[in-house]
Design goal:
The complex is a heterodimer. By secondary structure, chain A is mostly helical. Chain A has one domain: Methane Monooxygenase Hydroxylase, Chain G, domain 1 (Up-down Bundle). Chain A is built from six helices and no strands. The C terminus of chain A is likely disordered. Chain B is an alpha/beta fold. Chain B has a domain of 178 residues: Rossmann fold. Chain B has a six-stranded mixed β-sheet, sandwiched between helices. A four-stranded antiparallel β-sheet of chain B has the order 2-1-4-5, with helices on both faces. Classes of the chains: A mainly alpha, B alpha/beta. At the A-B interface, helix 3 of A face helix 9, helix 10 and helix 11 of B.
Chain lengths: 239, 280
């Protein structure tokens, strides 16, 4: 797309996109580190993630500030308008992803006070998929790549499937040995948080689609068929 | 030409003559103005190229585009204002309610009563406020008596949102009003002859933001009863007042569609570049 006649307008839009890229980088690192912390039982890393979350929150406020300024002073239309609106919404998803990673770190601190549970391999696999989804969707935003965004949207199913199998596995552990109920419950929330990170990635994918095409994603997203939690208990899985 | 714009054009076909629906009931009363392959030449120079568009009744259609794009030329075709320009030639068909306005049998003077026009600079007659509004109805014989005329003048001034401000000084000169009031007086004058269509050529460009807001509010009220076509250089104004937007560029109609769509997701790159301020 050609430059704006008013160059400062283009520069402000670029700055907004850069802010999202920076924020995305922070959120991505938080997700990767939180999975590593829970798998390696790394208390020091977990504390670090908790501290770093404030930075993501600051970046989000910065995105909002820039978006408000652009709307008030530049009155963006068409693709420019979509860029401002999607940056606003993506920053909200990234902020939530940061919170979920922080929550995983907090649960890591609790988990480290009891004996290890063998299920962490499954958590690691699931976390890697979620981190990859996040990386892919952030790349798709940076490049305006609708196909990549669509693939993220389609692959969320994989994370859901992992979550469902972890859910079942943790149930059996808890039934076998009631002493593991407390750590298993925390791990269940960790898994749920990762699943929610995946959901935020699909939100971002939808935003990328709207940003580039101007159309909402209309098709129904494929869902894992054996979802054990038809009533979404996610409201309890937050911070 | 984008496929979208093509589809837009194909949809209406030539207008089917429609009885005017009962006042105030229908908001969008179907196609009011149908233009097909309208071209305009000034001498050897072609200013407008094969413009085809359906303009709905009881709604506001904004014509936007850079200077010299043909939007005002097209607007002036709708009440045959181009007839008054030496060497101007119009080809193609423009129908209002299914009737070709360029047929020999159509009297341009009568046509211009049905298709009122409001210009960039308010142009009240150097007469009283009352006479400014009464002039049209009088020459068209719309009032049988003085009291008839009083009713017409009052109702036109009310519809133009000016009555409360001028009712105690109807004999004062129209030219003594403020710019915004003058513009509303001119709109009252257009409305007084009960037109089918009101054309507006940048009606707010000489007004301050408050007067502009009053005119925009007025436009929004008038669209319940009239087909309004407005040329504006202000994107924001087009976005605020119109239900449909048509983008002109270099004498061609590039794209037309619901205003919301044009301003969030235009199909054509030229539209996109223009409304986002990217034309060099």
């Amino acid at each position: 797309m050609p430059e704006h006649t008013v160059k400062a307008f283009s520069e402000e839009l670029d700055a907004l996109a850069n802010e999202i890229a920076r924020m995305g980088g922070l959120a991505e690192q938080a997700v990767i580190d939180s999975i590593a912390a829970v798998v390696r039982r790394d208390t020091r890393l977990a504390n670090e993630i908790i501290e770093r979350d404030a930075q993501i929150d600051r970046e989000q406020r910065e995105v909002e500030r820039r978006a408000i300024k652009l709307m008030a002073l530049r009155h963006p239309f068409a693709a420019d308008l979509r860029q401002v609106l999607t940056a606003w919404r993506i920053s909200g998803d990234l902020e939530r992803i940061g919170d979920l990673a922080k929550n995983i770190a907090k649960r890591t601190l609790v988990l480290n006070q009891s004996d290890p549970i063998q299920i962490t391999k499954g958590i690691e696999r699931m976390g890697k998929i979620a981190a990859f989804q996040l990386k892919t969707v952030l790349d798709s935003y940076a490049r305006g790549d609708v196909q990549a965004a669509l693939s993220v949207w389609m692959h969320d199913e994989d994370i859901d499937a992992h979550y469902n199998s972890l859910f079942r596995e943790l149930l059996t552990y808890m039934m076998e040995d009631p002493r593991t109920i407390s750590p298993c419950a925390h791990l269940l929330f960790v898994a749920k948080n990762i699943e929610r990170i995946g959901d935020h990635c699909t939100n971002i994918a939808e935003m990328v689609h709207y940003l580039v095409t101007g159309e909402e994603m209309s098709a129904e997203r494929p869902r894992a068929k054996d979802d054990p939690t038809p009533v979404d208990p996610s409201s309890a899985a937050g911070v | 030409m984008s496929p979208h714009a093509e589809a837009e054009r194909g949809s209406g076909g030539l207008a089917v003559p429609q009885a005017r629906a009962a006042a105030g009931v229908v908001i969008d009363g179907g196609t009011k103005i149908a233009a097909r392959d309208v071209s305009v030449f000034y001498g050897d120079k072609q200013a407008l190229f094969d413009v085809s568009i359906d303009i709905p009744d009881r709604s506001v259609t904004a014509l936007i585009g850079p200077s010299g794009c043909g939007k005002t030329t097209f607007l002036r075709c709708i009440n045959r204002m181009n007839d008054t320009i030496e060497g101007a030639r119009v080809s193609g068909v423009i129908e209002i309610e299914g009737k070709d306005i360029y047929q020999k049998s159509v009297d341009p003077v009568v046509l211009r009563a049905r298709v009122g026009m409001v210009f960039q600079k308010p142009n009240p007659f150097p007469k009283s406020i009352y006479e400014n509004v009464a002039y049209g109805p009088r020459i068209h014989g719309l009032a049988r008596s003085k009291s008839d005329m009083d009713v017409i003048v009052e109702s036109a001034l009310k519809r133009a949102g000016l009555w409360e401000e001028v009712k105690d000084r109807l004999t004062a000169a129209g030219t003594g009003l403020s710019g915004g009031q003058q513009q509303r007086l001119v709109i009252a004058r257009a409305v007084a002859v009960n037109p089918d269509v009101i054309l507006m050529d940048e009606p707010c460009s000489a007004l301050d933001p408050i007067a502009t807001a009053k005119i925009e509010e007025l436009i929004d009220e008038l669209r319940e009863n009239f087909c309004i076509v407005i040329v504006t250089h202000s994107m924001a104004q087009a976005a605020r007042v119109s239900q449909r937007t048509a983008f002109f560029h270099m004498g061609s109609l590039v794209e037309t569609g619901p205003t919301e769509e044009i301003f969030t997701n235009p199909r054509d790159n030229r539209t996109q570049d223009y409304i986002t301020g990217r034309f060099g």
